[in-house]
Amino acid sequence: MDPTDTAPDSWEQEDDVEATIDGQLDSAFTALNVKAKPFVPNVNAAEFVPVFATKAHSENLDSVVAVEKISTMEVSEIAAPLENGDAEMTTEEPWDQKEAEPNEEEPGGGSCGDRGLSGAATEEAAPEVMEEEEETPAPKVPPTQPDAPKKEHINVVFIGHVDAGKSTIGGQIMYLTGMVDKRTLEKYEREAKEKSRETWYLSWALDTNQEERDKGKTVEVGRAYFETDKKHFTILDAPGHKCFVPNMIGGASQADLAVLVISARKGEFETGFEKGGQTREHAMLAKTAGVKHLIVLVNKMDDPTVNWSLDRYEECKEKLVPFLKKVGFNPKKDIHFMPCSGLTGANLKEPTDMCSWYTGLPFIPHLDNLPHLNRSSDGPVRLPIVDKYKDMGTVILGKLESGSISKAQQLVMMPNRHVVEVLSLLSDDVETDDASPGENLKLRLKGIEEEEILPGFILCNAENLCHTGRTFDAQIVIIEHKSIICPGYNAVLHIHTCIEEVQITAIICLVDKKTGDKSKTRPRFVKQDQVCIARLRTAGTICLETFKDFPQMGRFTLRDEGKTIAIGKVLKLVAERD
Questions:
Q1: What is the average per-residue pLDDT within 132-149?
Q2: Domain 152-351+359-369 superfamily per CATH
Q3: Helices (H), 400-440
Q4: Which pTM value belongs to this model?
Q5: What topology is assigned to 468-573 in CATH?
Q6: Of 46, 284, 333, 531, which one has the greatest count of Cβ atoms within 10 A?
């Protein structure tokens, strides 16, 4: 057989090449191949062990058997031309033949390739090995996730005063549930140590922004997800600083369940709970945003000033309960207290010996055993938009409040009445074909530009559009305001994900807190702790519903000068006069 014949064969077969063999190995092969028959099984035996042991699929085994047959047939054929040629060939020539050899001995080529190859052979063959290796592990991630949306989906918002440990607890939960691997955390820990901030490394799993990491303060609502046996959770890590309360309101408006994190450390709890502290404000805003169930995590119990003390835990509890009751939570049904340590992870997944006096379930098992939420998927489609960006089209983010959305569905963007089509649908970064209420979605839309969307716009189905308008009557509770509020007062309105300037144009009547009776005469002003019904007018057209029809889009907060002034609910939409 002429050596010129073998070259074209090997080039035709080049597509299947996985890796090549060293020049030295090659000369060894030529020497051994003279006695082809006794040697062939030996080569295969060596190849058999490392055949990507992790993925010993039946297909691979079949290919190995096939490969053995081919190799026994062809090794002797190829050995002949090699022998006829000079024993010391130039380095370029063996590569031509070497590219044929791994083709006959596919698994062997791979195993040799793993050990390391020389020169240009590596460059040509290694990429193919890499591709093959990368392709097979890839499907390992998705199969665990497509079933994720089938589990009950719950959005958990972490709220509380700045530096109470919200992001750290979020990061620790992600680590305990296997959403962040140990290696990544070790990397964060190293980086945090370099900045002499070694206790912050867990929070970096959620604070991905460089500015947030440098200052150790969350600015935007961090998102992550984890799964338990029964449920699929989305973590919304709200900022605790008072400058970023508007972001926190956006996060709370998507939540089904709030976790109020308070620090048990001496001095820190008191600061967060005093007037102007975020513990109070966040609890109130969560209630206004429609969060029904509240878990209070008493964090930093491992601190030397606390040392898992029951007295300190009870003290925090006693101070909080009356306030939470006043906000509107029922202490018996809606609130659950539990001690924990975010930094060490004590009492988050497993019970801890340090805390023998706490008999309840740890945090993650407690979440898993919460009762089911009632959500109807047959209502009208309502998806308030939280954020938008450009990525091969227009992408929007938001939580589906009611109804269900599927791929290729035609929807209407209110209040601008743009007709859009859903191109693709991601639920917690996993692509799905349809979504049910309560899921956090990313939608890629067709028929609208990113510039034409603002946070606070709503996606609806064409048969049942949401109401839009500028004027509405609402019942308002004045929570904190030094002076009186008269008609003409301006504030910032936060309703679902929408932020808009608003003016109180008229105060219609006062409402008695105890009896609910309305005053006969129209009041000239309202002051702190009073309840009134007022007419409000926004600067631009917004989407809203009455509280009775659709609670999620009918409750709002009024803020001014960085403080929450009032909370309220929409009673009636007033038609615009032309």
A1: 37
A2: P-loop containing nucleotide triphosphate hydrolases (3.40.50.300)
A3: none
A4: 0.65
A5: Elongation Factor Tu (Ef-tu); domain 3 (2.40.30)
A6: 284
